[in-house]
Amino acid sequence: MLRWITAVLFLSRIGFPEVLIGLLPGAEGTVRLPRVAGLAFAMDVITSGKQVPAFDAYKHGVVDKVCGENVLEEAKVFANKVIGQPLGSRRLSGVDVKDAGSVDSLFEAALSLAKKKFRGQIAPIYCLKSVRNSAKMPFHKAAAEESKLIIELMTGSQSAALRYSFFAERSVPKWKLPCGATVNNTKPDIIRKTGVVGAGTMGSGIAVCLIQAGIPVILVEKDQKGNLSSLLSITVSQQISTTNAPADQYIWSLQLGTHFTGSSFCSCGFIFQRPPTSVKSWQMLEKAIKNISGILDGTVRVNRMTSKQKDQCMGILKGASTINELSDADLVIEAVYENLELKRQVFSQLDQVCKASTVLCSNTSTLDIDKIASATKRPEKVVGTHFFSPAYIMRLLENVYGTKTSPTTVATVMELGRRIGKVTVLVKSCHGFVANRTHLCFGAELKCCVLFLCSYVKGIDVGWRIRQEVAKSAGLTLTPETRYLNGERVSTLGDSLYEKGRYGIKTGKGWYKYDPSNPRKPVPDSDVEDIITRHCARMGLQRQNIPPKEVIDRCLYAAINESFRVLEERVAEKPQDIDVIWQYGFSFPRYAGGPLYFASQVGLKKVFEKVCYFHEKFPYSSHWVPSDLLRKLASHSVEIPMDQWTEFLSCSKL
Ligand code: NAD
């Protein structure tokens, strides 16, 4: 039983990734590592699956030598030095765990942390148990126990789902279009400079994603009247002074565009120039840039970036209040309000200003990409890039192609997603695309149950705008009293919150209230209970208790049925795309796979029966009309594997 003799390159990272697919390092990893590096290190590394830098591994005795770039030569010298030396001291079967005396307290602390951090997952708990065994049992006994534990994990449902998730995530970048274009046969455009229009929640977050990846951004915010022709220009510069003068003490510079020759003051490290117009725009832009700077400060605080890197990021960010500044951009992402006319107006302006090769992207959550693209003379260059909020945290990017979007444009935004470190899924345009379309069904059921565990980050105003747009396109006016839209039941409870200015975190209250010192922590608010009671009275609704299991089933099966429809309409290419969207967009547990993986485990016959049951019970909700594809798959006497589901869309298998 030898411990490793290893020499590794200084840039290497070392870890036990098994837990990430629901396993433990079952080739005696949980028994050996504590003997080499101690319990605390072993518990941390094995339960998290994280990779530690080579020098940390060396410090803990996991590797014998960290080499420079000439790793082969150094390793040979090292090997020659140790050849022939006695091996006794390296036999781990004879070595005790150094901190075995504190095993119980270390185990309890690690267990309570793991339960919080990896909520619902069993593999990290098994890892801890196995490491504890290694301190309490002789080597061979602990190793035998480890084997039993890994067999349990390997045959369990969580590991199966995590292995599915592992491959599903790797399958989504391999996009293909109905025309036959694929990731392998299409070259993306090269993107050097970008623009973002709208410096609100999403625009600022998207700018962070881009500058963190080293991609220069010009961030455009409108002026007071929504007019983009203002001459204001804010230049972010590396020439930092520390003046912290309040806004009204800044000296105004009448220099236009990016030429900076006048007097200037700096705040938060940026040089601002402003003409005496567009005060509102200037304030909004200043706020956005301060916000971006604050986000990056947070990244520095958690050691994910150095101060120097932060300054470099800020150095490639420039603010502007005119789209004219985007003439040179290779790609522009629009993130203005969710309003079709406004977006069409912005795209038409972009089309006139930007060079012919510029790719024009919309961050719309729901709107038809074709309708936005038709405001331009380059629909083949128009595409959806749907980021999730907060854009700099959420790893999902849902890229949306319209009927005229070219393969090159698709390749460009898929490559951009890869460059900025997103899990990027390609889908076809339809109302709400895949993420919001399937999630809206989930949310609709949830609101009908009036158990509002809704997303608290997403702005309630965004939902309001989406509903207004849907109503408008149907020629209707939506009020909180509306019960049916297009013959379908809707819940306007969110609109009652909107009426009270409760938009979510951004206004300090939404479904919950938020303490500004800890805005991520939602605090239940009795005012919301009052709003619900009044809303129900206004609508003449009788509130009733619905068992939690029914709430979960209704929400989940509504999303599953809609997911099958999405497949049926080829909005998503494969089930994995939808599951990955749910994992990264809505935190669906990876160890449960996703709504469609879940359905495959339940069995499609049972899923179909349940959907039919709810359809009968709630005939007014069109999302309960059973999907045709689901019906076909469920009618087979044998369960059809997920990979073959979409083959049933072709005539031969109908
Ligand atoms: P927001 O209200 O926070 O920001 C919109 C910004 O656009 C505002 O700062 C506004 O001043 C600016 N703006 C408006 N008209 C403009 C114009 N003509 N030119 C330049 N700037 C203009 O909204 P948001 O939440 O960031 O949403 C923006 C888009 O992103 C919407 O399409 C929304 O549906 C989508 N989206 C939002 C979320 C979310 O959770 N907030 C998630 C995904 C997608």
From TrEMBL:
Under the heading InterPro entries, the entry gives: 3-OHacyl-CoA_DH_NAD-bd (IPR006176), 3HC_DH_C (IPR006108), 6-PGluconate_DH-like_C_sf (IPR008927), ClpP/crotonase-like_dom_sf (IPR029045), Enoyl-CoA_hydra/iso (IPR001753), NAD(P)-bd_dom_sf (IPR036291)
- Localisation: Peroxisome
Supply one GO molecular-function term: enoyl-CoA hydratase activity
Pathway per its UniProt entry is: Lipid metabolism; fatty acid beta-oxidation
Domain 3-hydroxyacyl-CoA dehydrogenase NAD binding positions: 194-226, 282-429
Describe the location of the 3-hydroxyacyl-CoA dehydrogenase C-terminal domain by residue ranges.
Answer: 551-636
Question: Per its UniProt entry, which superkingdom is the organism in?
Answer: Eukaryota
**PANTHER family per UniProt:** 3-HYDROXYACYL-COA DEHYROGENASE
Query: Would you tell me the protein name for this molecule?
Result: 3-hydroxyacyl-CoA dehydrogenase
Q: What is the organism field in this record?
A: Elysia marginata
